[in-house]
Amino acid sequence: MAKASATPKVAARRRAKAVRPLPNRPHRFLRLVAAIRKLTRRRPHRRGLAAVSQSSPPPPPTSDERKCANRPPSPSPPPAEAEQARHEERTADAAAAAAEAVAGKYWAHRHSLFSLYDRGVRMDAEGWYSATPEAIAAAQAARAAPAGLVLDAFAGVGGNSIQFAARGCYVVSVEIDPRKVELARHNARIYGVEDRIEFVVGDFFHLAPYLKADLVFLSPPWGGPSYNQTPVYTLDMLKPKDGHAIFQAAQNIAPNIIMFLPRNVDIGQVEELSWLSSPPLDFESEESYVQHRFKGITAYFGDVAR
Ligand code: MGP
Ligand code: SAH
What we know:
Elements: E1 2-4, H1 8-16, H2 27-42, H3 63-69, H4 79-103, H5 105-108, H6 110-113, H7 125-130, H8 134-141, E2 149-152, H9 159-166, E3 170-175, H10 178-190, E4 197-201, H11 204-207, E5 215-218, H12 243-251, E6 256-261, H13 267-272, E7 283-290, E8 293-301
Helix pairs in contact: 8-9
The structure holds 7-methyl-guanosine-5'-triphosphate (MGP) and S-adenosyl-L-homocysteine.
Protein name: Trimethylguanosine synthase
Main location: cytoplasm
Region (Disordered): 1-27, 40-94
Protein backbone atom coordinates (compact mmCIF):
# COMPACT_ATOMS: atom_id res chain seq x y z
CA MET A 1 0.00 0.00 0.00
CA ALA A 2 1.40 3.40 -0.92
CA LYS A 3 1.90 6.13 1.65
CA ALA A 4 0.78 9.53 0.44
CA SER A 5 0.99 13.08 1.60
CA ALA A 6 0.03 15.93 -0.69
CA THR A 7 3.23 17.43 -2.07
CA PRO A 8 3.24 19.46 -5.31
CA LYS A 9 5.67 16.90 -6.86
CA VAL A 10 3.25 14.05 -6.23
CA ALA A 11 0.37 16.17 -7.47
CA ALA A 12 2.26 16.88 -10.72
CA ARG A 13 2.92 13.15 -11.25
CA ARG A 14 -0.74 12.47 -10.61
CA ARG A 15 -1.83 15.07 -13.15
CA ALA A 16 0.13 13.26 -15.82
CA LYS A 17 -1.86 10.09 -15.03
CA ALA A 18 -5.20 11.85 -14.76
CA VAL A 19 -8.20 10.13 -16.24
CA ARG A 20 -9.30 11.56 -19.56
CA PRO A 21 -12.77 13.12 -19.18
CA LEU A 22 -15.64 12.12 -21.38
CA PRO A 23 -16.17 14.54 -24.29
CA ASN A 24 -18.68 17.40 -24.47
CA ARG A 25 -18.13 19.03 -21.12
CA PRO A 26 -19.55 21.38 -19.81
CA HIS A 27 -22.64 20.55 -21.92
CA ARG A 28 -22.86 17.10 -20.39
CA PHE A 29 -22.65 18.60 -16.91
CA LEU A 30 -25.46 21.01 -17.72
CA ARG A 31 -27.61 18.19 -19.14
CA LEU A 32 -27.04 16.16 -15.99
CA VAL A 33 -27.90 19.15 -13.81
CA ALA A 34 -31.11 19.71 -15.79
CA ALA A 35 -32.03 16.03 -15.34
CA ILE A 36 -31.40 16.18 -11.58
CA ARG A 37 -33.44 19.37 -11.27
CA LYS A 38 -36.35 17.75 -13.10
CA LEU A 39 -36.08 14.69 -10.90
CA THR A 40 -35.92 16.58 -7.63
CA ARG A 41 -38.72 18.99 -8.61
CA ARG A 42 -41.07 16.18 -9.58
CA ARG A 43 -41.21 14.81 -6.02
CA PRO A 44 -40.38 17.86 -3.92
CA HIS A 45 -41.64 16.75 -0.51
CA ARG A 46 -39.94 13.36 -0.24
CA ARG A 47 -36.91 13.59 2.03
CA GLY A 48 -34.87 11.45 -0.35
CA LEU A 49 -35.51 13.74 -3.28
CA ALA A 50 -35.95 17.16 -1.75
CA ALA A 51 -35.82 20.39 -3.75
CA VAL A 52 -32.34 21.32 -4.92
CA SER A 53 -32.09 25.04 -4.97
CA GLN A 54 -31.99 27.36 -1.99
CA SER A 55 -34.04 29.84 -3.95
CA SER A 56 -36.73 27.35 -5.05
CA PRO A 57 -40.16 28.43 -3.77
CA PRO A 58 -41.87 25.93 -1.43
CA PRO A 59 -44.14 23.49 -3.30
CA PRO A 60 -47.86 24.33 -3.38
CA PRO A 61 -49.88 22.49 -0.73
CA THR A 62 -51.25 19.11 -1.79
CA SER A 63 -54.96 18.39 -1.32
CA ASP A 64 -54.06 16.41 1.84
CA GLU A 65 -52.10 19.34 3.21
CA ARG A 66 -55.03 21.67 2.46
CA LYS A 67 -57.36 19.26 4.31
CA CYS A 68 -54.97 19.34 7.29
CA ALA A 69 -55.00 23.11 7.32
CA ASN A 70 -58.82 23.10 7.56
CA ARG A 71 -59.03 20.69 10.50
CA PRO A 72 -60.65 21.99 13.76
CA PRO A 73 -58.16 22.86 16.53
CA SER A 74 -57.06 19.86 18.64
CA PRO A 75 -55.50 19.74 22.13
CA SER A 76 -52.14 18.60 20.74
CA PRO A 77 -50.12 21.15 18.74
CA PRO A 78 -51.01 21.24 15.02
CA PRO A 79 -48.65 19.17 12.86
CA ALA A 80 -46.79 22.20 11.56
CA GLU A 81 -46.09 23.45 15.10
CA ALA A 82 -45.10 20.00 16.34
CA GLU A 83 -42.76 19.67 13.37
CA GLN A 84 -41.37 23.14 14.10
CA ALA A 85 -40.82 22.17 17.77
CA ARG A 86 -39.07 18.97 16.72
CA HIS A 87 -36.98 20.93 14.26
CA GLU A 88 -35.95 23.44 16.96
CA GLU A 89 -35.09 20.61 19.32
CA ARG A 90 -32.92 18.98 16.63
CA THR A 91 -31.28 22.32 15.86
CA ALA A 92 -30.54 22.88 19.56
CA ASP A 93 -29.11 19.35 19.84
CA ALA A 94 -26.97 19.89 16.76
CA ALA A 95 -25.77 23.27 18.07
CA ALA A 96 -24.85 21.71 21.43
CA ALA A 97 -23.01 18.88 19.71
CA ALA A 98 -21.23 21.37 17.44
CA ALA A 99 -20.17 23.46 20.45
CA GLU A 100 -18.86 20.33 22.13
CA ALA A 101 -16.92 19.41 18.99
CA VAL A 102 -15.48 22.89 18.72
CA ALA A 103 -14.31 22.73 22.30
CA GLY A 104 -12.52 19.47 21.61
CA LYS A 105 -9.65 18.37 19.39
CA TYR A 106 -11.44 19.32 16.19
CA TRP A 107 -10.98 23.03 16.80
CA ALA A 108 -7.23 22.50 16.77
CA HIS A 109 -7.61 20.84 13.35
CA ARG A 110 -9.70 23.62 11.81
CA HIS A 111 -7.01 24.90 9.45
CA SER A 112 -6.05 21.42 8.31
CA LEU A 113 -9.71 20.75 7.51
CA PHE A 114 -10.14 24.08 5.70
CA SER A 115 -7.13 26.32 5.18
CA LEU A 116 -9.54 29.26 4.65
CA TYR A 117 -11.36 28.52 7.90
CA ASP A 118 -10.79 32.05 9.20
CA ARG A 119 -12.63 33.53 6.21
CA GLY A 120 -15.87 32.18 7.64
CA VAL A 121 -16.05 28.45 6.88
CA ARG A 122 -19.07 26.91 8.59
CA MET A 123 -19.35 23.43 10.10
CA ASP A 124 -21.81 21.35 12.06
CA ALA A 125 -21.05 18.59 14.56
CA GLU A 126 -20.83 15.80 11.97
CA GLY A 127 -18.88 18.08 9.66
CA TRP A 128 -16.22 18.58 12.34
CA TYR A 129 -15.44 14.92 12.64
CA SER A 130 -16.05 13.80 9.07
CA ALA A 131 -14.75 16.51 6.72
CA THR A 132 -11.79 15.24 4.73
CA PRO A 133 -8.68 17.26 5.65
CA GLU A 134 -7.91 19.68 2.84
CA ALA A 135 -4.49 18.28 1.90
CA ILE A 136 -5.97 14.78 1.57
CA ALA A 137 -8.99 16.03 -0.39
CA ALA A 138 -6.64 17.94 -2.72
CA ALA A 139 -4.49 14.82 -3.30
CA GLN A 140 -7.63 12.76 -4.05
CA ALA A 141 -8.92 15.46 -6.41
CA ALA A 142 -5.58 15.52 -8.24
CA ARG A 143 -6.45 12.07 -9.66
CA ALA A 144 -9.45 13.48 -11.53
CA ALA A 145 -9.10 15.08 -14.93
CA PRO A 146 -9.65 18.82 -15.01
CA ALA A 147 -13.08 19.41 -16.58
CA GLY A 148 -14.12 15.89 -15.67
CA LEU A 149 -17.54 15.31 -14.19
CA VAL A 150 -17.37 14.16 -10.57
CA LEU A 151 -20.18 12.93 -8.39
CA ASP A 152 -19.52 13.46 -4.67
CA ALA A 153 -22.11 11.04 -3.30
CA PHE A 154 -21.89 11.95 0.42
CA ALA A 155 -20.83 15.58 0.21
CA GLY A 156 -21.13 16.71 3.86
CA VAL A 157 -19.96 20.29 4.39
CA GLY A 158 -18.07 20.24 1.09
CA GLY A 159 -14.47 19.29 1.92
CA ASN A 160 -14.05 17.06 -1.14
CA SER A 161 -16.41 18.80 -3.56
CA ILE A 162 -14.53 22.06 -3.08
CA GLN A 163 -11.17 20.46 -3.90
CA PHE A 164 -12.51 18.71 -7.02
CA ALA A 165 -13.99 22.02 -8.20
CA ALA A 166 -10.75 23.87 -7.36
CA ARG A 167 -8.98 21.44 -9.66
CA GLY A 168 -11.31 22.40 -12.49
CA CYS A 169 -13.83 19.56 -12.31
CA TYR A 170 -17.58 19.97 -12.55
CA VAL A 171 -19.07 18.50 -9.42
CA VAL A 172 -22.50 17.21 -8.52
CA SER A 173 -22.61 17.14 -4.70
CA VAL A 174 -25.29 14.90 -3.24
CA GLU A 175 -26.04 15.21 0.47
CA ILE A 176 -29.10 14.01 2.35
CA ASP A 177 -29.04 16.70 5.06
CA PRO A 178 -30.30 20.04 3.70
CA ARG A 179 -28.55 22.02 6.45
CA LYS A 180 -25.21 20.54 5.40
CA VAL A 181 -25.91 21.46 1.80
CA GLU A 182 -26.29 25.08 2.87
CA LEU A 183 -23.01 24.88 4.79
CA ALA A 184 -21.28 23.30 1.80
CA ARG A 185 -22.64 25.93 -0.57
CA HIS A 186 -21.45 28.67 1.77
CA ASN A 187 -18.00 27.06 2.08
CA ALA A 188 -17.72 26.66 -1.69
CA ARG A 189 -18.43 30.38 -2.05
CA ILE A 190 -15.54 31.13 0.30
CA TYR A 191 -13.26 29.08 -1.94
CA GLY A 192 -14.62 30.78 -5.07
CA VAL A 193 -15.79 27.50 -6.66
CA GLU A 194 -19.55 27.66 -6.10
CA ASP A 195 -20.27 27.99 -9.82
CA ARG A 196 -18.62 24.65 -10.61
CA ILE A 197 -20.72 22.70 -8.12
CA GLU A 198 -24.35 21.66 -8.38
CA PHE A 199 -25.68 20.95 -4.89
CA VAL A 200 -28.39 18.36 -4.57
CA VAL A 201 -30.32 17.60 -1.41
CA GLY A 202 -31.10 13.95 -1.81
CA ASP A 203 -30.49 10.33 -1.00
CA PHE A 204 -27.62 9.01 -3.08
CA PHE A 205 -29.28 5.60 -3.40
CA HIS A 206 -32.47 7.12 -4.83
CA LEU A 207 -30.61 9.33 -7.27
CA ALA A 208 -27.93 6.85 -8.35
CA PRO A 209 -29.95 5.12 -11.13
CA TYR A 210 -30.35 8.48 -12.89
CA LEU A 211 -26.73 9.62 -12.76
CA LYS A 212 -23.66 9.30 -14.99
CA ALA A 213 -20.22 10.79 -14.35
CA ASP A 214 -16.52 10.26 -15.01
CA LEU A 215 -15.72 9.61 -11.38
CA VAL A 216 -17.65 8.91 -8.20
CA PHE A 217 -16.16 9.97 -4.87
CA LEU A 218 -17.40 8.08 -1.82
CA SER A 219 -16.82 9.17 1.78
CA PRO A 220 -19.87 7.73 3.50
CA PRO A 221 -20.51 7.92 7.25
CA TRP A 222 -18.23 5.57 9.17
CA GLY A 223 -20.54 5.41 12.19
CA GLY A 224 -19.09 8.36 14.12
CA PRO A 225 -15.77 8.96 15.89
CA SER A 226 -16.01 5.58 17.67
CA TYR A 227 -15.21 3.85 14.35
CA ASN A 228 -11.69 3.18 15.64
CA GLN A 229 -12.81 1.30 18.76
CA THR A 230 -12.65 -1.93 16.78
CA PRO A 231 -9.30 -3.43 15.69
CA VAL A 232 -10.61 -4.20 12.19
CA TYR A 233 -13.27 -2.11 10.51
CA THR A 234 -15.32 -4.22 8.10
CA LEU A 235 -17.25 -2.82 5.16
CA ASP A 236 -20.62 -3.79 6.66
CA MET A 237 -19.98 -1.11 9.31
CA LEU A 238 -20.30 1.71 6.78
CA LYS A 239 -23.53 3.71 6.80
CA PRO A 240 -26.24 4.02 5.63
CA LYS A 241 -25.65 0.75 3.72
CA ASP A 242 -22.75 -1.66 3.65
CA GLY A 243 -19.70 -1.01 1.48
CA HIS A 244 -20.75 -3.45 -1.25
CA ALA A 245 -24.12 -1.75 -1.76
CA ILE A 246 -22.47 1.68 -1.81
CA PHE A 247 -19.82 0.54 -4.28
CA GLN A 248 -22.32 -1.18 -6.57
CA ALA A 249 -24.46 1.95 -6.76
CA ALA A 250 -21.35 3.95 -7.69
CA GLN A 251 -20.24 1.42 -10.31
CA ASN A 252 -23.37 2.03 -12.35
CA ILE A 253 -22.52 5.73 -12.50
CA ALA A 254 -18.85 5.86 -13.43
CA PRO A 255 -15.89 3.67 -14.40
CA ASN A 256 -13.69 5.39 -11.79
CA ILE A 257 -14.32 5.36 -8.07
CA ILE A 258 -12.42 6.84 -5.14
CA MET A 259 -13.34 5.80 -1.59
CA PHE A 260 -12.11 7.39 1.63
CA LEU A 261 -12.18 4.80 4.40
CA PRO A 262 -11.13 4.31 8.04
CA ARG A 263 -7.46 3.63 8.71
CA ASN A 264 -8.41 0.33 10.40
CA VAL A 265 -10.46 -0.90 7.42
CA ASP A 266 -10.04 -4.51 6.28
CA ILE A 267 -8.03 -3.74 3.15
CA GLY A 268 -8.56 -7.24 1.72
CA GLN A 269 -12.31 -6.60 1.69
CA VAL A 270 -11.75 -3.25 -0.02
CA GLU A 271 -9.65 -4.85 -2.75
CA GLU A 272 -12.39 -7.44 -3.29
CA LEU A 273 -14.70 -4.63 -4.38
CA SER A 274 -12.67 -4.36 -7.58
CA TRP A 275 -13.69 -7.96 -8.40
CA LEU A 276 -17.33 -6.95 -8.59
CA SER A 277 -16.54 -5.86 -12.15
CA SER A 278 -15.63 -8.17 -14.97
CA PRO A 279 -12.79 -7.85 -15.80
CA PRO A 280 -11.81 -6.59 -12.33
CA LEU A 281 -11.10 -2.89 -12.01
CA ASP A 282 -7.54 -1.70 -11.45
CA PHE A 283 -7.07 -1.13 -7.74
CA GLU A 284 -4.71 0.88 -5.59
CA SER A 285 -4.85 1.92 -1.97
CA GLU A 286 -2.81 4.48 -0.11
CA GLU A 287 -2.50 5.68 3.43
CA SER A 288 -3.52 9.32 3.70
CA TYR A 289 -1.62 11.51 6.15
CA VAL A 290 -1.79 15.05 7.46
CA GLN A 291 1.47 16.20 8.97
CA HIS A 292 2.62 12.61 9.55
CA ARG A 293 -0.65 11.67 11.22
CA PHE A 294 -2.42 8.72 9.65
CA LYS A 295 -6.00 9.84 8.94
CA GLY A 296 -7.54 7.27 6.63
CA ILE A 297 -7.13 5.02 3.62
CA THR A 298 -7.92 6.15 0.11
CA ALA A 299 -8.87 3.41 -2.35
CA TYR A 300 -8.76 4.04 -6.10
CA PHE A 301 -10.63 1.89 -8.62
CA GLY A 302 -10.44 2.04 -12.42
CA ASP A 303 -8.15 4.32 -14.44
CA VAL A 304 -7.58 6.53 -11.38
CA ALA A 305 -5.59 3.67 -9.84
CA ARG A 306 -1.89 3.80 -10.65
P1 MGP B 1 -10.55 10.72 13.55
O1 MGP B 1 -9.82 9.44 13.66
O2 MGP B 1 -11.88 10.81 14.22
O3 MGP B 1 -9.69 11.94 13.98
O4 MGP B 1 -10.80 11.03 12.00
P2 MGP B 1 -8.13 12.00 14.32
O5 MGP B 1 -7.84 13.39 14.70
O6 MGP B 1 -7.31 11.41 13.23
O7 MGP B 1 -8.12 11.05 15.57
P3 MGP B 1 -7.02 10.77 16.62
O8 MGP B 1 -7.16 9.29 16.83
O9 MGP B 1 -5.69 11.20 16.05
O10 MGP B 1 -7.44 11.57 17.81
C1 MGP B 1 -9.76 11.19 11.06
C2 MGP B 1 -10.35 11.64 9.75
O11 MGP B 1 -11.21 10.60 9.29
C3 MGP B 1 -11.26 12.86 9.86
O12 MGP B 1 -10.52 14.06 9.69
C4 MGP B 1 -12.21 12.65 8.70
O13 MGP B 1 -11.63 13.10 7.51
C5 MGP B 1 -12.33 11.15 8.62
N1 MGP B 1 -13.55 10.68 9.27
C6 MGP B 1 -13.74 10.42 10.56
N2 MGP B 1 -15.01 9.99 10.73
C7 MGP B 1 -15.59 9.58 12.01
C8 MGP B 1 -15.62 9.95 9.51
C9 MGP B 1 -16.91 9.56 9.07
O14 MGP B 1 -17.80 9.14 9.80
N3 MGP B 1 -17.13 9.65 7.72
C10 MGP B 1 -16.18 10.11 6.87
N4 MGP B 1 -16.47 10.18 5.58
N5 MGP B 1 -14.96 10.49 7.27
C11 MGP B 1 -14.68 10.40 8.58
N1 SAH C 1 -16.47 14.22 2.46
C1 SAH C 1 -17.30 15.09 3.27
C2 SAH C 1 -17.77 14.41 4.55
C3 SAH C 1 -18.79 13.33 4.30
S1 SAH C 1 -19.49 12.69 5.79
C4 SAH C 1 -16.53 16.38 3.57
O1 SAH C 1 -15.31 16.43 3.34
O2 SAH C 1 -17.14 17.33 4.06
C5 SAH C 1 -20.78 11.71 5.14
C6 SAH C 1 -22.03 12.48 4.74
O3 SAH C 1 -22.95 11.58 4.12
C7 SAH C 1 -22.81 13.11 5.91
O4 SAH C 1 -22.83 14.49 5.75
C8 SAH C 1 -24.22 12.52 5.80
O5 SAH C 1 -25.25 13.44 6.07
C9 SAH C 1 -24.26 12.09 4.34
N2 SAH C 1 -25.23 11.01 4.01
C10 SAH C 1 -25.62 9.99 4.79
N3 SAH C 1 -26.48 9.19 4.11
C11 SAH C 1 -26.62 9.72 2.87
C12 SAH C 1 -27.35 9.34 1.70
N4 SAH C 1 -28.13 8.24 1.69
N5 SAH C 1 -27.25 10.10 0.60
C13 SAH C 1 -26.47 11.20 0.60
N6 SAH C 1 -25.77 11.63 1.68
C14 SAH C 1 -25.82 10.89 2.80
